[in-house]
Write a structure and sequence with these properties.
- This protein is an all-alpha fold.
- The chain has one domain.
- It has two helices and no strands.
- The protein is rod-shaped and about 130 Å long.
Length: about 100
Amino acid sequence: MNKNTEYNEKLKSEKHAISSRENLTGMLPFVLFIAFILLLYIFFSHQTDKKIRKIEKLNKEVKELYSENITLQTEILNKTRSSSLEPLMLNYGIKPPVKQPIIIK
């Protein structure tokens, strides 16, 4: 009986080994699918990071251009005031008017 039980246990372990191999080969498509999903997840997370960096860079550029725009508008406003235009016009022989302009109705 001892040999018989050993033989039965040996058969069970062989069946278990065979069934575990079959289970592994049966699970292979699922494992490959999970690996593919993980690769997609990594790829899309890198793409998202790139887009976030690009958006931050563009936001910084917009802020710089906005401040440059404000600076240029201030310079134009200062250069078009009559107090700053009179000395420039005197160089060309143009004097400010002495009389008020006549309104035509």
